Amino acid sequence: METCDQESSETAEGTMNVNVDYLQQLKDLDIPEEEAKKALILTGNVSAEEAAIFYFDSLEDQNPEGDEDQNYYKMVFVVNMELPMGMGKVAAQVGHAAVGLYQLLLKESKTRDVACKWDEYGAKKVVLQGSNTTHLLELQALALSMNLPTYMVQDAGRTQIAAGSYTVLSVIGEEECVNKVTGKLKLLN
């Protein structure tokens, strides 16, 4: 039975419902529809991010460029969706998070290697939705407990929101580790 949130897709094992919102998010990333459906099915329809990661990883597996044991890095931005920010404001805050985290990485000798590896392997970036300030702080604490570098943006309060508001959390590290922190969050759309 189909609902307005889901569309069915035939698989070799039978019928699997594919979340239409996730499917659209994947198509917005220029992933072909059939490949997007396949990725959603094979990742259990958990999230668009998981399916996108699966899809892009499968492309890399088809065209390996060197060491099979290579660890891929990514930078993730979690936007505080509780705040009334317009798209331009969100874009600016994500920019602050990217620059702030990158500067932090370059400042400390122990994290320069992370910045270099991230940059060397495509500088992958993903923007996700966080529920509220508490959620961002919890994610930051989890990331820090895993020794992942983070940067939290606090707004100056000159435009749309109050000074000191936590707007965006950025996290960087090996993709597998970062996914343990943010893997269940929805893509920003």
Automatic annotation (TrEMBL):
Annotated catalysed reactions: an N-acyl-L-alpha-aminoacyl-tRNA + H2O = an N-acyl-L-amino acid + a tRNA + H(+)
Entry EC no(s): 3.1.1.29
InterPro entries named among the record's database cross-references: Pep_tRNA_hydro_II_dom_sf, PTH2, UBA, UBA-like_sf
Residue intervals of the UBA domain: 21-63
Gene Ontology CC annotations of this record: cytosol
Superkingdom in the source lineage: Eukaryota
Enzyme class: hydrolase
CDD domains: PTH2 (cd02430)
Gene Ontology molecular function, alphabetical: peptidyl-tRNA hydrolase activity
Keywords on record: Hydrolase
Family designation: Belongs to the PTH2 family.
Protein name (record): peptidyl-tRNA hydrolase
